[in-house]
Amino acid sequence: MAAAVRGVAQSGHVGGVGVSVPPDVTIDAQSLTPFVDALPLPERLRPVGANRYRVAMKQRVNKLHRDVPLTRVWSYGAGAAPPLIEARKGEAISVEWVNALPATPLISHDGFMVMDDHAGDAPNRTVTHLHGAHVEREDDGYPEDWFAPGRSRVSHYANAQDATALWFHDHAMGVNRFNIYAGLMGMYLLRDEVENALELPRGKYELPLMLYDRTLTKAGQLYYPNMAQTGDDEDEFYGDAMVVNGKIQPYCEVEARRYRLRLFNTANARTFPLRFGNEMPFQMIGSDQGLLAAPVATTRFDLAPGERADVVVDFSECRGERVELQGDGFALMQFRVARERAARNPALPARLREVARMDEKSAVRTRFMTLAEYGDDMVMLLNGKHWHEPVTEIVKAGSTEIWELANLTDDMHPIHLHTVRFQVLDRQWMNVPKYFAEKRVEFTGPVTPPLTWEMGWKDVVQCPPRTLTRIIVPFAAKPGMYVWHCHVLEHEANDMMRPFEVIA
Ligand code: C2O
Ligand code: CU
Q1: Which one of 60, 170, 182, 259 has the fewest CB atoms closer than 10 angstroms to its CB?
Q2: How high is the mean pLDDT in each 10-residue block of the chain (504 residues)?
Q3: Which residues are within 8 A (CB) of 71 and not within 5 positions of it... i.e. 6 or more apart?
Q4: Which residues form ligand 1's pocket by a CB distance below 6 Å?
Q5: pTM of full prediction above 0.90
């Protein structure tokens, strides 16, 4: 079945087979001088009326690095950095998302992922999803709700959820991996009274940082492998240029005091194991869906595609130094710490907010679901089902379920559910050959609790290889069809996305 699907998709691209990338097409981004551009801060998008925004997606040019020519990108904003919307809990807003893109794609769509079957639909289609927002079906950016250049769609965001860092990005069927790669991403910081009452670094001491990787051609344009260039598609995209807020390896001058870093992994596929070059400890204060109960100290953690982390770092520990933020063997950016002590450096509160851990007994149903690859062509499916097959996850609005995500592959998959928040229960290694042979789960290791910074509310969960990861999900959502998927965008396009339906 899976092989047949691949065959169909491939037949349209026969001309590209066997052509490989000339080695001189791309630049070696690691040979660029790092830390020569200042970190851009996001432009704040302003309402055009009472709680009304109008955000146009346009093709623009961006200076990614001092020594790289101007790069054509797609953007929701005017500046280099992805733009920012700041919202307050309890104040609903609406956004008219306007597709003002040109008719020709920026990135070649010559791929053969399962979802490339949709390639004939308006190539520059878009639909915006506010990742992590609790919304109604119509406002969620359902992949099939895409619209072509010249059209727009209004989404309503109730902002009736706890303060956190959400982000918006494209979700158009079959092309979101290209659209996000081109730059269709933005930040959305939701504030509330709980957060405001805490003395956390704010204003210029709060830095929102979107982390992603790209590959550039010699002409400084975005390079994404495709059939015509490589004769093959990529199962996952990994670039060699590390980009933060629209600049390759920028630097940022900071005072010798505490800063709050709002980190977003917006890469197509790369997980960033994050640490500072000097191994300095820092405090994790929040995850995808808001603040943790209390700060958790660590020196490193993994941030997977789609995930956010709220981190407080005290630069007074390294006055006068230059400290790199590093991930996955790369320097992402550099902090240049002032020599003088800052006038004020308030300590972190010991308690952040109430996070009640959910009781497993509150679940009315447990679903066992597989994450697996099929055939030698890496079609990846949730629960053995393709996107277009009838919905199988039908949940009652307001009910709580446990989802057991059995990852039968050798890759980590960051799984995201739309419109809800959840908690991670635990993980346990499983015997995968045995499961394939007998469809029976045999565990091969102890139950491991969530990591300390995973004890809050989440909307993406890292599912490690050969492991059963359990989450508990209160489906506090309005009836309708939503999606759940792997946030590795190439996996998602290879059919690692399924609908789930909330019924009244
Ligand atoms: Cu961040 Cu369905 O996505
Ligand atoms: Cu995946």
Answers
A1: 60
A2: 28 30 76 98 96 97 97 94 97 98 85 64 92 98 96 98 98 94 98 98 98 95 77 78 98 98 98 97 98 98 98 97 95 98 96 97 97 80 93 98 97 97 98 96 97 98 98 98 97 94 98
A3: 61, 62, 63, 64, 216, 220, 221, 222
A4: 129, 131, 169, 171, 306, 416, 418, 483, 485, 487
A5: yes
